[in-house]
Amino acid sequence: MATKNQSLGEFIIENQNDFQYSSGELSRLINSIRLAAKMVNHEVNKAGLVDITGSAGEINTQGEDQQKLDVFANDTFIRTLTKRQIVCGIASEENDDFITIEGQRNDHGNKYVVAMDPLDGSSNIDVNVSVGTIFSIYRRITPVGTPVQLEDFLQPGNMQVAAGYIIYGTSTMLVYTTGNGVNGFTLNPSLGTYYLSHPNMTFPDDGNIYSVNEGNYSHFPQGVKDYIKYCQTEEGDRPYTSRYIGSLVSDIHRNMIKGGIYMYPRSSKAKEGKLRLLYECNPMAFIAEQAGGSASDGHERILDLKPTELHQRVPFFCGSKNMVAKAEEFMTKYPR
Ligand SMILES: O=P(O)(O)OC[C@H]1O[C@](O)(COP(=O)(O)O)[C@@H](O)[C@@H]1O
Ligand SMILES: [Mg+2]
Ligand SMILES: [Mg+2]
């Protein structure tokens, strides 16, 4: 039973049966994420000071200008995950190819692969708006003791054993699921400890917030245009309120607490949308569903999609289940 204000460490021990594999493995995984998040939080809080602001001068595989904090967060999470001797491979937004955990005996027993977005909402780093980190964890499917393979990462989202995000906002929170509900822990910066502040987080079935970059409106499919018009129409509990931070983690976190829908549809500019299936959509979809919400690409359940590439993009509709169903209703009126 989740008790408010218990520490993350106590919670993991008390709820060890929630994890389908050994609790020791889960705590080592979560502990490495917890540690890296504290180090990134420390740097995020300095954003605005010269040494941590701006471009790192590199372009990542997605053609994005890597920010210094993207690189710092990427290096920090890779280092802590590697040290714990539990992960055999890492896929990151900031690395072209997946990373095979080297240097340990080839027959190491590491059984997990992690896909991650080390710094989500990069465009908001220098303007003091909340950003995040997103992680998705799978059990490898290739034999333990052999080098990790691409297929270990291209598992459908419904095979995730754990997923979550860290939000670096007015406070720093770690929110995660192992398939038994969603719990949120707030970092007490002076003690350096996370405490259970949001037990059993749930998405209200309905809400009155819609989150989409309306600047792309003219490029959206007709179904999306119709749904946005529906949200803006004066009728019943509408019009809804438009809220868009431009950090996926922050927009979904707010909508999970207040009720709402986040959309990053495909458009004539971005044929498959912008968000990446492995380390943005799958983990946020797992969280959303575990909190009673839902997530689709406008037609199909995100968690049932079979990934084909590490950095593939998919259209994303996520949030209060009745709002996602309504958006899908408009989408399915038109051919895909
Ligand atoms: O500026 P746009 O096109 O609305 O995109 C905003 C979206 O892109 C992202 O910043 C993509 O994530 P990264 O910052 O990790 O690349 C999301 O967090 C956000 O929801
Ligand atoms: Mg992102
Ligand atoms: Mg990112």
Fold and architecture overview:
The protein is an alpha+beta fold and 336 residues long. The protein has an eight-stranded mixed sheet with strand order 4-3-5-6-7-8-9-10, sandwiched between helices. The chain has a five-stranded mixed sheet with strand order 12-11-13-15-14, with helices on both faces. Strands 1-2 form a two-stranded antiparallel ribbon. It has two domains: 191 residues, 2-Layer Sandwich (Fructose-1,6-Bisphosphatase, Chain A, domain 1); 123 residues, D-Maltodextrin-Binding Protein, domain 2, CATH 3.40.190.80. A hairpin with a 3-residue loop joins strand 7 and strand 8. The protein has eight helices and 15 strands. Helix 2 runs antiparallel to helix 3. The protein is 29% helix and 23% strand. It is globular and about 55 Å long. Bound molecules: 1,6-di-O-phosphono-beta-D-fructofuranose (FBP) and magnesium ion (2 copies). The site of one magnesium ion has 5 residues, from strand 5. The site of 1,6-di-O-phosphono-beta-D-fructofuranose has 12 residues, from strand 5.
Strands, helices and their partners?
Blueprint: H1 8-14, H2 23-44, E1 55-59, E2 65-67, H3 68-83, E3 87-92, E4 99-100, E5 112-120, E6 131-139, H4 150-153, E7 162-168, E8 172-177, E9 182-188, E10 193-198, E11 209-211, H5 222-232, E12 241-242, H6 248-258, E13 261-264, H7 277-290, E14 294-296, E15 316-319, H8 321-331
Parallel strand pairs: 3-5, 11-12, 11-13
Antiparallel strand pairs: 1-2, 3-4, 5-6, 6-7, 7-8, 8-9, 9-10, 13-15, 14-15
The protein binds 1,6-di-O-phosphono-beta-D-fructofuranose (FBP) and magnesium ion (2 copies).
